[in-house]
Request: fold
Amino acid sequence: MSPLAQAGGLSLHGIGGAKDLPISPELAIAGAVAALTVSFTVLALAWRKPRYDEVERGRLTGIRAPLEVPAVVAVLRVFGVVVFLYAAVAGVLGKDLLTNPIFGMFYVWWWVGLPLLSVLLGPVWRAISPARTINLVFAKVSGGDQDRGLFDYPARLGYWPAALGLFAFVWMELVYPYSTELGSVRLWCSVYVALMLIGGALFGSSFYERGDPFEVYSTLAGKLSIWGSRDGRVVVRSPLAGLATVEAAPGLVGVVAVLFGSTAFDSFRDSIRWVSFVQGTDRSPYLMNNLGLLGFCLGVGVIFAIGTMASGVEPGFRRTTLPNLFAHSVVPIVIGYIVAHYLTFWFETGQQTLIQASDPLSDGSNYLGTGNWSVNYWLSLHPTLLADLKVVSVVTGHVLGVISAHDRAVKLLPKRHQLTGQLPLLFAMVAFTVGGLYLLFAA
Reply:
């Protein structure tokens, strides 16, 4: 358990292991596999034409899209900058104590809260990103265009900068031995802000859409939101319709592989099997954890790529394009595991962070009026409900992933391969489901 967890008296992870999940592992895994198999069978019989495409679909309302209202945009920008400056004060002027709220803001609010909020409201980070706001201010002062930088963003880079940025974050969180030292968090955030400002100056908004790890993360999660926009108006849509609008580009598989693989490794690294293996080798735990994290992320990416490229295609169609074209189907799986793995962590440590945030300098202040609040442990006190929520979130994510992949398959694959061509990907998703639920109980 990390020092941060010990300081708050909480488990660092949302999963507490079998003691936290009063459900038979065999029953949960069998039920999940059955759900995927039945889903695929039903889809094969009833879903023979694509229903979603890359165009924003849904019921158009008469409500003006919030991000089309200048006053709303300004308020969101100011909010993002205020929170950024408040966190900077805690990070730069605060004490190097585990009660410093910067740790919770960094590891809980930013990493876990952001995608969950994006699922509810849409791509939140795009609206409040301080890097975008600073870039806008620089453009206004210099008379430039915030959307255009000095160069065009290279299409071949795609999402790879975001994938590397996300890996840098999960490495910091899961592997780096000094992840709960103030200097480490301060340095990581400083490098992140510097790279975002340089990228925005060089390539404009295109860089944030592809290269900002947190904007890409938030945008992918936001595709599952029921809220969209078209012609300046709010659209109420199916989450699958939003998911279909994810733009395929190089590196998209890398992004989802890092998100999924790192969450899986976060469960596995605290299991008895992994701890015993590391302790039984003559290599350092730091090296083994590095290899473990990298192996999990690469493993997810390779399994998914093989599952998609094993499909039948028309002559002349490049199989290597298939993984990125199907990668959007992994997004609901990622969100399902985020909920399952971090639910308790977010609910309880997130509250603790709000309490600590009232005293950013650790001098007894109570600026936000939350310093006297106490953490509500309601979720931990209802283990059966908690177990049900976690298993349901994993299974729901996989079922949505299967539906999304099937819809894309009937659009892309030749008719004779629309069903058999999906079997390798279905096997990959079954493997993800079994492995994920195993880790859910093994942690």
Summary: The chain has one domain: 3-442. The two ends are 12 Å apart (CA to CA). The CA atoms of residues 96 and 322 lie 47 Å apart. Strands lie at 59-64, 227-230, 233-236.
